[in-house]
Write a structure and sequence with these properties.
Helix content: 25-40%
Number of strands: 10
Radius of gyration: 17 Å
Bound molecules: tricarbonodiimidic diamide
Strand order of the largest sheet: 7-4-3-8-9-10
Distance between the termini: 10 Å
Oligomer: single chain
């Protein structure tokens, strides 16, 4: 970069401009794993139409590439449990009436279990060397993961979120981050829900009351802010 630059960039965002120094900012991609966006995984086992989520993949890819081009720090998360389910509270496994429960064998291997085919990040957004990959047993990225300590050791103060689903793992992670003192931005067209109304409500509530949880902007707005900083 430009990653050496300490100058803050201003991004056109809602409810007002989001200021960030790229070298102190991590791009956090929540749970873009096959379990949520492909048939046969956890998302579908809960009764959801997973096709809806795939629409964000191209813009999410474009933002990831732009962020990599300026040398930015990247964190990928996966919702994942240990094969012995020792990190899966019975309440989480037993809730509701899904066709397949966490740990059951589905078309992409055991549902939501680390190492299984369904638990892998989708090919379009594969992590590359140097990027952090966090397996998280909860909906939030900070619970039982050590993520906060890792971000602190990299001097990170700002987080830019993408991924699925907006009102579940993304919003939970943003709220956890907010309570730990990070300034959070959610990219509107790089996050999706199985329920469009829940996505819309989440975007509203994140930026309500003067960015109480954080800011929102489009992926293109972030890419525009980064473009002048891309090395030749
Ligand atoms: N069910 C649902 O919308 N989401 C999850 O269970 N996990 C994530 O959001 N990753």
């Amino acid at each position: 970069m430009s990653i050496e630059s300490t100058q803050a960039l201003a991004l056109k965002a809602r409810p007002f401009a989001y200021l960030f120094q790229p070298e102190r900012t991590a791009l956090v991609i929540i749970d873009m794993q096959r379990d949520f966006v492909e048939p046969g995984g956890f998302g579908e086992s809960l009764g959801n139409d997973v096709a809806l989520l795939r629409a964000i993949i191209p813009e999410t890819q474009a933002v990831l590439q732009a962020w990599r081009d300026v040398g930015g720090f990247v964190v990928h998360t996966r919702e994942a449990h240990r094969p012995d389910l020792g990190d899966c509270p019975p309440a989480k496994r037993e809730r509701g009436n899904p066709r397949l429960r966490i740990g059951d064998v589905g078309p992409m291997g055991r549902i939501l279990i680390a190492g299984e085919p369904g638990n892998q990040i989708i090919p379009e957004l594969q992590p590359v060397a140097g990027e952090l990959v966090i397996d998280k047993p909860g909906k939030g990225a900070f619970y039982a993961t050590g993520l906060h300590e890792m971000l602190q050791s990299h001097g990170i103060s700002h987080l830019i979120f993408m991924g699925v689903t907006t009102e579940v793992c993304v919003q939970t992670s943003m709220r956890e981050a907010n309570d730990r003192g990070y300034d959070c931005l959610l990219l509107e067209d790089c996050t999706e829900s199985y329920f469009p109304a829940y996505k819309a409500a989440t975007l509203e509530m994140v930026r309500a009351q003067g960015a109480l949880v954080g800011w929102t902007a489009s992926g293109a707005q972030l890419r525009a802010a980064l473009a002048p900083h891309k090395p030749e």
